[in-house]
Design goal:
Length: about 140
């Protein structure tokens, strides 16, 4: 198996609300339409997909527990090229309807970061670190 994550799919309660948050609020590009029933966003590297939660549960197994509460132990990350972008992205997320979980601040590991939750409660870290470098395609060099 080649080590790759091609798509991250978020099961969402309201596809239209999530479309507005990611497309209109955060500016994620997509050619998808709500009537397609699934949306794929063109992010650098991995693609982000939104799919109705009930349909995702049905696709996996109708017996899988799907009530979401509390912290799931998973975060998504958006790494920025500049420190100021962290504040900008957090502000954009909040204006789009996200909830700021942790305002931008110095991180214990030496960078600068903050967290927001999208309308379905998925947690995103927005982070900058002076030593990070990016590939030409925008992906983080680690």
């Amino acid at each position: 198996m080649e080590p790759r994550i091609s798509i991250i799919t978020l099961g969402v309660a309201d596809l239209e609300r999530s479309y507005r948050f990611y497309r209109e609020g955060l500016g994620f590009p997509t050619e998808g339409k709500l009537e397609d029933g699934i949306l794929f966003f063109q992010t650098w590297g991995t693609r982000l997909a939104l799919y109705p939660l009930e349909g995702l549960v049905e696709d996996i197994s109708p017996d899988i527990p799907h009530e979401r509460s509390g912290f799931t132990g998973i975060t998504l990350a958006h790494n920025t090229r500049t420190k100021d972008e962290v504040d900008d992205v957090l502000c954009l997320a909040e204006m789009a309807g996200g909830i700021i979980l942790k305002p931008a601040q110095k991180a214990f590991w030496g960078g600068y970061h903050g967290y927001f939750a999208d309308p379905d409660g998925y947690n995103w870290e927005v982070a900058w670190f002076e030593e990070w470098q990016f590939n030409p395609d925008g992906s983080l060099v680690v």
